[in-house]
Every structure is written in C-alpha cells, then in structure tokens.
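step: validate -> pass
step: tokenize input -> pass
step: predict -> running
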Amino acid sequence: MSSSNPDPQNHPQPKNLRFADVGINLTSPMYQGVYYEKKHHEEDLDGVVERAREMGCVKMMVTASDLEEAGRVVDVSGTCYGTVGVHPCSTPLVDLHPTGPTAYLSALAQLAQQTTLTGQTIAFGELGLDYDRFHFSPKETQQKYFTAQLQIATSLNPPLPLFLHSRSAAADFEALLTPHLPFLPRGGLVHSFTGTIPEMQRLVALGLHIGLNGCSLKTPASVDVVRALPLSHLQIETDGPWCEIRPSHAGTAFLGDAPALPRAVRKEKWVEGCMVKGRNEPCAIVQVAYAVAAIKGIGVEEVCEAAWRNSVGMFGLGVEENET
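step: predict -> pass
step: emit ->
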C-alpha cells in the first residue's frame, strides 16, 4: 500500500478514536483515477484505505448501487464488507436486463444470500426512493423496485439489516417500508440523512438508525436535526467520493477542534500519498465525528463510541464481542 503524507498544520492531532465508515463507495471510478470517464491519475485505492486506517477508520461498508457493482465490492481483508441492492436511481437497469426484470431480481437475491453466508455481505441495499432525481428513474419504477427489494430482504436467511436511501420522499418511503420492518429484526440505516426533525423522529420511532455525513450538515436546519438526533440511533459515514463537508456548509463552523486531513491536490496534479480536492475519502469521517460532537456539545469520544456501538450492533462488521 502507498504511504499517506499529511502536511503538518497547526491543528490538533487525532485522538485514539475508532471509526466505522458505514457508507463508502470504494467501487467508484474516482478511486481508480477516472473522473467523468477521463483518466487523470493512476489508481490509488490502497492509499485511500491506508489513510483511513491511519485516522482510525478500521471498518468500512462498501455500498453497491446495482447488481454488477454488488458483484465487485471491494474486498480488503478484515476492513471492508459489502452491500447488495439497487439504488433508486439505478432501478431502470432492472427493466433493461437482457433476460428481464424477474431474472435480475432473482440474481440479486441469489447473490445476497450467497455472500451473506460467506460473510462478505452485511447489509441489503442501497435501496429506497429519490424524488429529487426523477431524471434518472421515474417515481413508479422506484416504488416498484423498492417494494420488490424489500420482499427479497425479508426472504433472506438470516435477514440482513437494510441500507436505505430517502430523498424528498418521506411519506411514500415510510408507507412502503413500514409493513416489512417486523420481518427485519436488525432494522436498517437511513443513510446520508437530509430530512427534517419530524421525519427523523418518525424514522427513529420505527427503530431505524440515521446516517450522518457532510450532506447532513449543509444548512442550519440540518444542524438542528443532528442536535436532536439521539445518540442511540446515530451512525456516521462519508458517502465518499461524494458528500464531503464543504466550506459553504453550516457544519464547517463546528470543525474547530478537528484534526487536519492529509494534503489534498487537484486531480490533474495528483501525487502518491495525497488526497484529491473534491473527492471525499473515509479518512474524512473524523471531521463528521468532530462536527457532530461540537453540534451536540459533547466529547468526540462519546460520539465515536456510540456510532461504533450502533454500527457494530446493526451490521456486525466482523467485530467479535470482545472487541466492542
């Protein structure tokens, strides 16, 4: 693996914290140096994983957005585990499958069952509804295959927890999901949450957890949601290569005590050991934790241990009982 090379800056050094990034897209072409179908630098996935580990991010859940992606989820022994499912924006792929949607869904269920038994897959998803992006998939298609996937999830033995996506679709999301929850004893995580306080409270009342990342810290209203979210239902993630905490985000005001991240350069100027500007990485989960802690007015250690306990309790992440 390549060696990361943080620039020395006048920032606090990382504490002895541990993180589980429960939403990271390591299959993204960006970690292969490809941005919008153009190659800018060589693959640096090893460096990405090493930087994460150096920052204390020792467990990662690599999310899949379709059947093909689920079949090539990154395997880094002891660190990375995967999901199987179809993102709402990818649901048209089900209908476009050469042998039809039934065959696609059957293959999805088979892959989920097989890789659950081998320990590679620890969650079913990413599935849900995204009403902000009908240009990718119409409402009817999203709803149809959200329901179909929930039926697959409840048929697995043992059933997996869900890795869920909801954008501007709270009422339909809850209505379609709720009847299936009694058959899913480990519930699920509504990741990259950007909803309101009442929406969050309804999901928590259903027993679901809420995943926070940079997109959850955009506005003052988002900060209020984080402040109101019970630690018992909180998990943290990066959703890299997207959802970084940007300077324009309200959450940036709460990063005063966060340790510095490794040096970042433009993709055209990439050198080994550096992050890429605008490309989020698992090591940046430390910023999410520090921002959440400052927003809540509690120690970062308390946030990290609660998030770790919640993530391990839901997803396992290969952690033995004596490690928790």
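step: describe -> The chain is about 35% helix and 15% strand.
step: cleanup -> pass
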